[in-house]
UniProtKB/TrEMBL annotation:
<protein>
    <recommendedName>
        <fullName>Long-chain-fatty-acid--CoA ligase</fullName>
    </recommendedName>
</protein>
<dbReference type="InterPro" id="IPR042099">
    <property type="entry name" value="ANL_N_sf"/>
</dbReference>
<dbReference type="InterPro" id="IPR045851">
    <property type="entry name" value="AMP-bd_C_sf"/>
</dbReference>
<feature type="domain" description="AMP-dependent synthetase/ligase">
    <location>
        <begin position="100"/>
        <end position="422"/>
    </location>
</feature>
<keyword id="KW-1133">Transmembrane helix</keyword>
<keyword id="KW-0067">ATP-binding</keyword>
<keyword id="KW-0436">Ligase</keyword>
<keyword id="KW-0547">Nucleotide-binding</keyword>
<comment type="similarity">
    <text>Belongs to the ATP-dependent AMP-binding enzyme family.</text>
</comment>
<dbReference type="InterPro" id="IPR000873">
    <property type="entry name" value="AMP-dep_synth/lig_dom"/>
</dbReference>
<keyword id="KW-0812">Transmembrane</keyword>
<keyword id="KW-0472">Membrane</keyword>
<feature type="transmembrane region" description="Helical">
    <location>
        <begin position="18"/>
        <end position="51"/>
    </location>
</feature>
<dbReference type="InterPro" id="IPR020845">
    <property type="entry name" value="AMP-binding_CS"/>
</dbReference>
<dbReference type="Pfam" id="PF00501">
    <property type="entry name" value="AMP-binding"/>
</dbReference>
């Protein structure tokens, strides 16, 4: 598919006469001012001729449109880099920065959830108790303890207390069970597990597999009487005996020491444990804080899971690192999102993945604008619903950003450009070197020139985003994963010069002439059909709009003896309201023939990760074989252009080549 993202540069052609006239007028004016100085007049004439020849007028036009944005971006970048540089020079860690923040307003609410909260003083005292407890238990610097718990105010202060004794915390996804849970505990080398009472059943299922790991059960303050698992320490009870006095390590941590492990979402398989250092934890919330022009008086609504970067670093970090009050929610609720924000006086709200689409599906009501939210921060707001979202909920500013838990390639949309995930100005390209390079969109393989170097993309050319790795600069480092082999796979060498090294984001983006970036697809998700490349992300956006913003997953499936992959879409429709005739008709008007999914699967529930990303791996493996699951499936008949039930006989005919595709 051809990406239709951003404003095409052809509009600049329509401005050509205006630009040329402006240059000529300015030159004439300056010439008048320089009258009597032949040398200056000559230089001005040369400048005017230079700017009016070739395509240079285009850059004048671009500059006139982007200089305010670019100057703002430069200020944000330099302010963030300078503060991180100062913190690193001073040896600042999350623990030492927290100590400064906690002293500023000790009685201010730090983390709020429902009617319960912890002040900065209470959070600090609780984290001190955690530190003393696990120190007396004999845990040593560099050891890893898993934290397996749903969102609550104490969550952050448990890992902060462990950080005070330089123990690394592995933040385990609370949705994991069985083999995936065991995998995450073992790849990080966990020596123990701290779990919430609500996770007791999940731990009980695997207890025989982790007998070498001591278990500590933390009962939430509102569930103090919950039963303690056998062979498990009652953490909340035993903490009461610990001192609340500060714990001071004689050998303090360093900014680049590992603070925690955060696991990738697992959309394509088992999660990987990404290393989060102290300096990276400081950088992420600071960058967003500066970009959104926040202050410590802001109240942040963070309904995201704390085991993920967006909720536990970007969101929680606004409290830990920058002194904001952070409002939590145990589980995201579309119907309570705006009422929560209004109740707690939130001025900033977070979103991720499909959250904004879910909010639009809630019937309109008085809570839509009964809030004080001035800016929403996150990633994954689809271009197709962007303007509708802003108009309905009255949000002044959308701060869409792009980045990965472990990556160094971050972008921010500072001026709420609809659909853009960020921008890169030529003013900062030397100090923040990101690049789009040409690749095979199907396999993700990077294309190189005759010298073995990567080929840079031009405007509107889809390419793989790479970020230069520079260990000397905190914003350009790549700490990798607990699994070093996985780390090596994310690095690309000899990109521009011999032996340089870049981080491979795995995402295909498009940049327009103005420097705005737009998401196109994940490498490996794009597939080829009828000689054309099909972007799953673009098709998902179109179909989601056609079916009332339902969860939609698009992927390619193989048909024996047929070149390429056919499109397949899985749609979550638990209310059974999907109208197949309207869908087929809408697709015929909205998508070219090669991009229309041949196969349709109806799901009872959306296949979501904990971070509201749509899973594809299992759906791809099951394909369109009706014998592998019981969900209803349909096939797009070429003659009638309607979706027909995919029976066992029809499946056999397709596989045997008896059906014309």
């Amino acid at each position: 598919m051809t990406a239709k993202t951003g404003v095409r540069f052809e509009e600049a052609e329509n401005k050509k006469c205006v630009i040329l006239s402006s240059i000529a007028a300015v030159s004439t004016l300056l010439s008048c001012l320089a009258y009597g100085c032949p040398i200056l007049m000559g230089l001005l004439v040369i400048l005017a001729v230079y700017l009016m020849t070739g395509n240079r007028y285009q850059w004048v036009y671009i500059w006139s449109k982007t200089y305010k944005r670019d100057m703002t971006g430069l200020k944000v970048l330099l302010a963030t880099m300078f503060r991180i540089w100062v913190w690193e020079r001073r040896g600042t860690t999350v623990v030492t920065r927290w100590a400064e923040v906690a002293e500023m307003e000790p009685d201010k609410k730090a983390f709020v959830m429902g009617d319960r909260y912890l002040t900065f003083r209470e959070g600090d005292e609780f984290s001190n108790q955690i530190a003393w407890y696990f120190k007396r238990r004999g845990f040593k610097t560099g050891e890893v303890i898993a934290l397996f718990m749903e969102t609550q105010p104490e969550y952050v202060f448990i890992w902060l207390g462990l950080a005070k004794i330089r123990v690394t915390t592995a933040l385990i996804n609370s949705n994991l069970r069985g083999a995936q849970l065991i995998h995450c505990l073992k790849i990080a080398g966990c020596k123990a597990v701290v779990f919430g009472d609500e996770m007791a059943d999940a731990i009980k299922e695997i207890q025989h597999e982790i007998q070498d790991m001591p278990l500590f059960q933390f009962n939430s303050p509102d569930r103090t009487s919950a039963a303690i698992l056998p062979s498990t320490a009652p953490l909340a009870t035993e903490l009461a005996e610990m001192s609340t006095e500060p714990y001071t390590d004689l050998d303090p941590a360093k900014p680049r020491d590992t603070l925690m492990y955060i696991y990738t979402s697992g959309t394509t398989g088992f999660p990987k444990a990404a290393i989060i250092t102290n300096i990276r934890y400081l950088l992420i919330p600071l960058g967003v804080h500066n970009s959104a022009h926040l202050s410590s008086s802001d109240v942040v609504y963070d309904p995201l899971p704390l085991h993920h970067t967006a909720g536990g670093v970007l969101g929680a970090g606004q409290g830990l690192v920058l002194g904001c009050t952070v409002v939590l929610r145990k589980r995201f609720s579309a119907s309570n999102y705006w009422s929560d924000a209004a109740k707690h006086g939130c001025t900033v709200a977070q979103y991720i993945g499909e959250i904004c689409r879910y909010l639009l599906t809630v019937p309109k009501g008085p809570n839509d604008r009964a809030h004080k939210v001035k800016v929403i921060v996150g990633n994954g707001l689809r271009p197709q619903i962007w303007q509708e979202f802003v108009d309905r909920f009255g949000v002044e500013r959308v701060l869409e950003f792009y980045g990965a838990t472990e990556g160094n390639s971050n972008l921010v949309n500072l001026d709420s450009k609809v659909g853009a995930i960020g921008f890169l100005s030529r003013l900062v390209s030397s100090i923040y070197p990101l690049t789009l390079v040409k690749c095979d969109e199907i396999t993700g393989e990077i294309l190189r020139d005759e010298n073995g170097r990567c080929i840079t993309c031009g405007p509107h050319e889809p390419g793989l985003l790479l970020g230069k790795i520079d260990p000397k600069k905190a914003i350009l480092t790549f700490s990798g994963y607990a699994d070093k082999t996985a780390s090596e796979k994310k690095m690309v060498r000899n990109v521009r010069v011999e032996n340089d090294c870049y981080f491979n984001t795995g995402d295909i983006l498009v940049m327009d002439h103005y420097g705005y970036f737009y998401f196109k697809d994940r490498t490996g998700d794009t597939f080829r059909w009828c000689g054309e490349n099909v972007s799953t992300a673009e098709v998902e956006g179109v179909i989601s709009n056609l079916v009332g913003l339902k969860d939609t997953v698009v992927y390619g499936v193989t048909i024996p003896n047929v070149e390429g992959k056919a499109g397949m879409v899985a749609i979550a429709d638990k209310e059974n309201k999907l109208r197949l005739e309207e869908l087929a008709e809408g697709l015929s008007f909205s998508l070219p023939a090669y991009a229309r999914p041949l196969f349709l699967r109806i799901l009872p529930e959306p296949p979501l990760t904990a971070t509201f990303k749509l899973k594809k791996k299992e759906l791809i493996e099951q394909g369109y074989n009706p014998g592998l699951h019981g969900d209803p499936m349909y096939f797009l008949d070429k003659k009638s252009r309607c979706y027909l039930p995919l029976t066992e006989k029809l499946y056999d005919d397709i596989v045997q080549g008896n059906v014309k595709l």
